[in-house]
Amino acid sequence: MKKRQVVMVRRDASASDNNNNNNNNNVVKYGECLKNHAANSGGYAVDGCREFMASAAEGTTGALTCAACGCHRNFHRRKELAAPSR
Description:
The chain has 86 residues and is an alpha+beta fold. It is built from one helix and two strands. It has one helix spanning 13-23, and strands at 26-33, 76-82. A two-stranded antiparallel ribbon has the order 1-2. The longest helix is centred in the N-terminal third of the chain and has 11 residues, at 13-23.
């Protein structure tokens, strides 16, 4: 049986509030899918999905699944764009 090491990190509440305020200035967009569908056979093949499109409304579990390729949002390239100035 393998031993597992668990690392827990505590963060100060005020520090996390400051980080959340800084992240609100950026708009996040997810680009092409980077999932390697041939990883089990030792190869490299991507499906060609060019942009993440949520398969359901925001706030549901389907919002994290791509309607085009069926992959989780984490497999898509994350792009942070500067928010338009007001």
